[in-house]
Amino acid sequence: MTDNLLEMQYSKRLNEIKTMMDFIDRMLLLPRLTPTFQMSLNIQKSSTALLIYNLMESTVSTSFTNILDSIVDNNVSYADVSDPFQEIWLDLNFMDTFDVSSSFTSYRNRTQQIITKILNNKSTNFLSFSNSVTQWQLPGGNIDAEQINKLCKSFGISFKVPIEISRDAGVLKTIKDKRNQLGHGDYSFDEIGRSITVEDLRSWTNEVDEYLKCLISAITVFIDNRKYCLFPENLITQQKSN
Predict the structure, then answer these.
(1) Tens-place pLDDT, residues 137-155
(2) Are the C-beta atoms of residues 184 and 237 closer than 8 Å to each other?
(3) Tally of CA atoms within 13 A in the half-sphere of 63 that contains its CB
(4) Sign of the CA dihedral 189, 192, 198, 199?
(5) Which residues contact 131 (CB under 8 A, 6 or more apart)?
(6) Rounded to whole angstroms, how far apart are CA atoms 88 and 151?
(7) Residue ranges of domains in the chain
(8) pTM score of the predicted model
(9) CB-based burial of residue 54 (10 Å sphere; 0-12 exposed, 13-18 middle, 19+ buried)?
(10) What is the C-alpha separation between 58 and 48, in angstroms, rounded?
(11) Which residues contact 207 (CB under 8 A, 6 or more apart)?
């Protein structure tokens, strides 16, 4: 996915959150005469928390996928990428041998295929990450600041959020926990909504928005400077000459 598509996707999801917040604000102007009204309001607040988490997870997944797409688009070989991406590619190529029924022969044959790919000077030497699940992708419901920092570290990305935006990004964990409580059925939408104020939602939205924009910026710089390469200046020079 290109940066433009990421930006469009991000804007769409952020607008969904803002639309829901506008709806909640209009609800608050109505007379609250029945328990049903309060339950409806609580459900809307819980749904908004889910929308915020959806923004987090989709942005993180797409941003890191963009790095792999850039490697593929620029025809980078195994020998030219840095260690983290060599490991991701190797894990990807061993994926279908991770089975209890796999034999020594299966592992040996796959190893031979991988070595051949690496040593081959033809186009097969270029890396491909398409249509596969790789080790960096996390199961749904696990995205928070700790996991994002681990991803950045494993990819070799320098990422730090200014204190004025988020001191410890604990709000991301709070939102993740709310999402999982709803997703696992531990609490109802009404129950979770009671524990969330409208001001909470506004504060969470603002902080998550600023946090994710910092992440997108860091990954964009990483991609633009081809930091996934062992010698990124060589690839950039080559592209300019072409």
Answers:
(1) 655 668 999 999 988 988 8
(2) no
(3) 24
(4) negative
(5) none
(6) 12
(7) 3-76+135-241
(8) 0.83
(9) middle
(10) 15
(11) 165, 166, 169, 171
